[in-house]
Amino acid sequence: MTVTAPELLVAQRYSKASTRAAVTIAAAWHLGSDLPSTIFGWSEYRWPLLALGAWILYSVIGVAASVALLNPGRRLPFGPWASAGLALVSGAVVIVACRPEAIMSAANWGWGSVGWLALILFWPRRTWPSDLAVFFLINALIMLAGMAAADSLDRVWIGKFLVILFGSMTLQAGASAGAHAFDLAAHWAADNSSILARAEATQKAAEQVHADRLRRYAQARQAAAPVLTRLAEGADPSDPDVRHQCAVGAARLRRLIAETDDAPNPLLHTLRACVFDIERRGVVVNLLTAGTVPPLPLEVRQALIEAPLEALARARTQARVTLVATANQVIISVLSDAEEFVVPEPDGVRVATQVEGGLLWIESGWTAP
Question: Using CA atoms, how far apart are residues 367 and 362, in angstroms rounded to an integer?
Fold first, then answer.
């Protein structure tokens, strides 16, 4: 499941923590247990330098595997199973280096320790449980072969073998299972957090849609109710004032409808819709635009277009509309042969008017704060 960025970040942090823990445990075991066993058991080796070489080979494999595990962009020089084979070889070399009577002593650290390398090598694989099981089985068979070569297959030695084998496998498999479970729990928590966040976002979106519908219903009622009420009270439809009021109400309704459309430039889209509505009445409208309108909140767009819209609606034969926009300023001006009227002045915009030569000029402007 795809999760959002914050949840993914949390999951990645937990995953890195569990991975670092696995690498730290393997490194601490090799340095804190295997190295002292090699040094203090030096006299128990037939070929001490061979045991030291096995410890160095183990270290090289561990460093390479750790670097690849902690840096997902890097890979092992060999595949995981090829590296695991080298790890098994290092364990077998330690067995060969030991004297026969020391094969079950602490000096023979390899076969009980290589499982920590397997934990790192198979960590990112989905098949890590089966990989570890096969690795442990091969490691056990190698140790049994070494015991057979040293003629140490009596019940006492077999008992020691089983105790050490069970103890090391329990520690290594348990550490791997626990760390993977911790990683899985982190991703599960992140996924559930993402599901909850999406559910909350969906609910908020539904509430917002409902609120917008109520708001638009109120605006549509405000635009149409006065005209309808006046007509219901017996107003004469041929009265120029009534006709102007009807035109303004129609333009406002047209604006509300245009605002629901998905357009790259909502303000220009709404303005064009209003111009189209006026042109249907036979008014000649010239629309000029310059610049790119910056993103504006719906309230600002409504306030900007309120006065120009009414001037357009009151135009009798002709009108010129100009929209000029910059990154921090938008100006809409209308020059029409409409009669002078009380110009609305919504909050957040400035409105200027002038009448000259029988023409009404109205300018509505917004400047970024």
Answer: 17
